[in-house]
Write a structure and sequence with these properties.
The complex is a heterodimer. Chain A is α/β, with parallel strands linked by helices. Chain A is built from eight helices and five strands, in the order H-E-H-E-H-E-E-H-H-H-H-H-E. The longest helix of chain B is centred in the first third of the chain and has 58 residues, at 2-59. Chain B starts with a helix and ends in a 22-residue tail after the last helix. Chain B has helices at residues 2-59, 66-81, 85-106, 111-114, 116-151, 155-162. By secondary structure, chain B is mostly helical. Classes of the chains: A alpha/beta, B mainly alpha. The interface between A and B is large, with 37 and 46 residues.
Chain lengths: 280, 184
């Protein structure tokens, strides 16, 4: 093994001058194991999935195994950190996620460790896992065996670090009720606007709302556009409602249609480039 | 008359609100850059702390390579003496260069490859270099968000009023695209 660091320095400078890195989000995660390269059978995937989700329940650590066909010219370090960022492995605040990324065509793998687990799964330990569990098995195309051993090691190393606090994901209920809230607002507004015969109030409110949106996006152009559109819509709406004398529609609740949680269910954690890469 | 007053009031409210939100966004983005710089610096520090261990492990075997050890020590001293962000960035690049040269020289000593403590240190150094790369990239992202905001109209005029100017990116240093050549 030649001293890779010299090469890494080279890569460092290249990181900064490449205009468009080749990472593309491979999709939404399908659980803890996402096997885009087709290396595992259904049973193997299921067994890993059970192990990892059990581990997540016990410790709140989120270990994900991802296999991809090819890095598409990107480096595995960059791909791993970008994937970690997109999927947000680990719980928010604890950053206790680990990504095991395997790129089949490039014959490279990487263990990317979240900020929170860096003290217990050090780079040196990751290098041991890569060199003694993954590399020899992958060289014999025993992908499942290698992955399973590596997962066991990662579990053993990080078992003690966190206990789940029982109040994960407090904000999902807020988003769940948001659509119901808007429906309620809509109908109450209809009642109020319908009371008066004139319809300029709807226009003013619409324009005001549009301008606020423009404020929030801090863009004058979109503010003007939104103000115009919503103003016209408001005018029209009020006109219609005033004609029919309001009073209809009352305030009935529409059952909140559950909002899906972001990113397929990982907790919002971050990583900073810790871990180890290897080739086989 | 009342209608014009209402409209005027709304306009003042909107403009005021816009100034308010733009200023706050400038503050947020500027702070994000400083915060991210702190991350970069902490990774520089991590590398800085690893270097003496590496030097001690290889000094025995590489006894005659005193020049590179001297250069490395000098670069480290300059880094710890650097005060401003710019000075620190320049000094860090010098440390990087010296470290790179040491690594290239190390390739000539195959017996180092089997030394376990050296292997562990190399793993740690690689990890640190990767972390530095990631934090620098995030720093550039933060600078980009800020610069885009400061350069757009009409935020541009507000920004200069409040004293916010464009910030510098981390650039690849000249000549770092080619690996350092070692002459014997």
């Amino acid at each position: 093994m030649a001293f890779k660091s010299a090469k890494l320095f080279l890569l460092l400078s290249l990181f900064l001058s490449w205009p468009a890195l080749a990472y593309q989000n491979p999709g939404n995660p399908s659980g803890f194991v996402s096997d885009y390269a087709g290396l595992l059978t259904q049973e193997q995937k299921a067994s890993l999935e059970t192990k990892l989700s059990q581990f997540e329940k016990e410790t709140s650590n989120e270990i994900a195994v991802v296999t991809i066909q090819s890095l598409e010219g990107d480096t595995i370090e960059n791909y791993a950190v970008k994937l970690f960022q997109d999927w947000k492995l680990g719980k928010e605040g604890k950053d206790n996620g680990i990504l095991l990324l395997i790129a089949l065509a490039d014959r490279q793998m990487r263990i990317e460790v979240g900020y929170g687990l860096e003290p217990v799964l050090t780079d040196a330990q990751s290098s041991l896992i890569v060199n003694s569990e993954l590399k020899p098995n992958f060289q014999q195309e025993k992908y499942y065996e290698g992955i399973a051993l590596a997962v066991d090691q990662m579990i053993a190393a990080t078992k003690q670090e966190y206990v789940p606090s029982g109040n994960e994901k407090p904000d999902s209920s807020f988003f769940r009720y948001l659509p119901a809230f808007f429906f309620f607002l809509f109908f109450s507004l209809a009642r109020i606007l319908g009371k008066s015969k004139s319809f300029w109030l709807g226009g003013v409110l619409g324009a005001g709302a549009g301008a606020l949106i423009g404020l929030w996006l801090s863009s004058l152009a979109s503010g003007l556009i939104f103000a115009g559109i919503l103003g016209l819509l408001g005018l029209g709406f009020d006109y219609l409602v005033s004609k029919h004398g309001g009073g209809k529609g009352g305030g009935f609740f529409v059952g909140g249609g559950g909002f899906g949680s972001r990113g397929g269910g990982f907790g919002g954690g971050r990583s900073g480039g810790g871990g180890f890469s290897g080739r086989w | 008359m009342k209608k014009t007053l209402i409209i005027l009031f709304v306009v003042v409210l909107l403009v005021g609100g816009y100034v308010w939100s733009t200023y706050n966004k400038l503050v947020t983005n500027s702070e994000a850059i400083d915060n991210q710089w702190a991350q970069v610096e902490s990774q520089y520090q991590r590398r800085f702390d690893l270097i003496p261990n590496l030097v001690n492990s290889v000094k025995g075997i590489m006894a005659q390579e005193q020049t590179i050890f001297g250069e490395l020590a000098q670069a480290r001293t300059r880094y710890s003496g650097a005060a401003t962000i710019n000075e620190k960035a320049v000094a860090a690049t010098e440390v990087e260069g010296a470290l790179g040269r040491l690594l290239v020289i190390m390739e000539n000593y195959p017996q180092l490859k089997s030394a376990e403590n050296v292997q562990t240190l190399m793993v740690q150094l690689e990890g640190t270099e990767n972390r530095i790369a990631v934090e620098r990239q995030r720093y550039n992202d933060a600078v980009r968000t800020f610069n885009v905001m400061v350069k757009r109209i009409p935020a541009k005029w507000l920004a200069s009023q409040f004293g916010y100017a464009e910030r510098n990116y981390f650039e690849a240093v000249e000549g770092s695209e080619s690996a350092p050549q070692v002459e014997f």
